[in-house]
Write a structure and sequence with these properties.
Distance between the termini: 21 Å
Number of strands: 18
Shape: globular
Oligomer: single chain
Largest sheet: 7 strands, mixed
Length: 423
């Protein structure tokens, strides 16, 4: 008795993170037969939100910058109900707290910042000298002459409080505190912060992949982990536990480590983070901004913290408030103790009594972000020598923007190809 023929599809996308969803949505829009297999129980990959007792807690503290160009191409931003933080950054010092206002978003506060922002004329000039190349993003993406952030700050003469604030703020973004990240990449991020005010969707960061997935309807299959991809003729056979499919094209859009295992491509170094979430009856004082510790010797490990519900009320039940703080993992991959995180976050925010903060969630994400060392390399190859397609933030810039761009590049490339029979 002959075995039943294996089902076929034109394109199989492995992984329903941002890159995979963007790729699949583009292919579907071009009329291609596309299916998405996702190992997890929901879409989003590393972008996800846990709903716990009415609190929305994103996996690894994340914000969404509406200035990302690819974001506007991929979705209708208004559908997210983005709740913005106050423009700028709040800084804890030894005896007080100051805020650095976003000069384009809140120009009326600039005089106050110059009077009380702890910046001298020399320091402002040094910061401007360092940030000036962000005006020319194309030159940054070329990667020529790129050096590590720490070396670029030193070369520009950025020191003292500005140096500490820049490095600690960015440490919470690129997930390293030694300044080894590409300066060109950091300046691209700085450009986006200058052009847009980050915020959080009403339904949490999970709303972003959910919105991308809505265009795919019944094309996504959850809880189907791919174990093997093998060549057959001009196409591929993709195997999962108890399932096999033949596909003309296969797009590996998994996390970087899984992608390396499936494709044989080298795995990038990954950065880890821990984020603690606490509930409280009263929000801490101060602006609804991201806070950093600007002191020469911080009393704890927190990179950044915020009263999340002050900026995004939908993240907490009515009458309650949600606070988040993030820190790096140790060299051994261990997170700081929750009590240490809570004490430091409370100190930065000048909270009256952290003993009343109730833990809601702790997210330890060991492989949260690919490292982005100098020189910056963007637009990495989207196809292996064997013919597998690959997309993700490890193939472009390590960001939401990079993941979406990578997915779009692969989707557009496949859409241009003529559909042929394979066997």
């Amino acid at each position: 008795m002959n075995a039943a023929p294996e089902p076929e599809c034109d394109v199989l996308v492995v992984g329903a993170g941002l890159a995979g969803l963007r790729c699949a949505a583009m292919l579907a829009a071009h009329g291609r037969s596309v299916e998405v297999w996702e190992a997890g129980e929901r879409v989003g990959g590393r972008v996800r939100t846990d709903l716990i007792d009415g609190y929305r807690c994103d996996r690894g503290f994340q914000v969404l910058n509406p200035a990302y160009p690819e974001l506007r191409k991929a979705i209708d931003l208004t559908a997210l109900g983005l709740q913005a933080f106050e423009p700028g950054i709040a800084i804890r010092r030894d005896t007080d707290a100051i805020r650095w206002t976003h000069p384009l978003r809140a120009p009326t506060r600039i005089p106050e910042m110059l009077r009380h922002g702890g910046l001298s004329t020399r320091e402002v000039i040094a910061l401007a000298r360092w940030a000036a190349p962000a005006i020319r993003p194309r030159a940054l993406t070329a990667g020529r002459g790129d050096i590590a952030l720490v070396d670029a700050l030193e070369r520009a003469g950025v020191d003292g409080l500005p140096r500490r604030v820049v490095q600690r703020f960015l440490a919470g973004v690129v997930l390293e505190d030694d300044g080894s990240t590409s300066n060109a990449f950091v300046l691209l991020l700085a450009r986006m912060f200058a052009l847009g005010t980050p915020g959080l969707p009403e339904d949490g960061m999970q709303a972003l992949p959910n919105l991308l997935a809505a265009a795919l309807k019944d094309r996504i299959v959850l809880q189907r982990r791919v174990t093997q991809i093998t060549r057959r003729g001009s196409g591929w056979v993709v195997s999962s536990d108890g399932h096999r499919v033949c596909a003309r094209h296969v797009v590996v859009a998994t996390d970087p480590m899984s992608a390396a295992a499936l494709t044989g491509l080298p795995a990038p170094a990954m950065r880890g983070v821990v984020t603690d979430w606490w509930a409280t009856d009263e929000p801490p004082p101060g602006p609804a901004m991201l806070w950093v510790d600007g002191r020469a010797t911080p009393p704890g490990p927190v990179l950044n913290c915020a009263a999340i519900s002050s900026a995004a009320p939908s993240y907490a039940p009515a009458g309650r408030h949600l606070i988040a703080a993030s820190a790096l993992l140790s060299a051994a991959g261990e997170p700081p103790a929750e009590a240490m995180m809570r004490a430091h976050a409370g100190d930065i925010l000048a909270a009256a009594s952290v003993s009343r903060w109730q833990p809601v969630a702790r997210h330890v994400v060991a492989d949260a972000l690919p490292a982005q060392p100098a020189p910056l390399r963007v637009r990495q190859p989207i196809r292996t020598a064997e013919g597998l397609w690959v997309c993700g933030d490890h193939r472009d810039t390590a960001s939401i923007q990079g993941a979406l761009v990578s997915g779009r590049r692969v989707g557009a490339a496949i859409a241009k190809l003529t559909v042929k029979h394979f066997g």
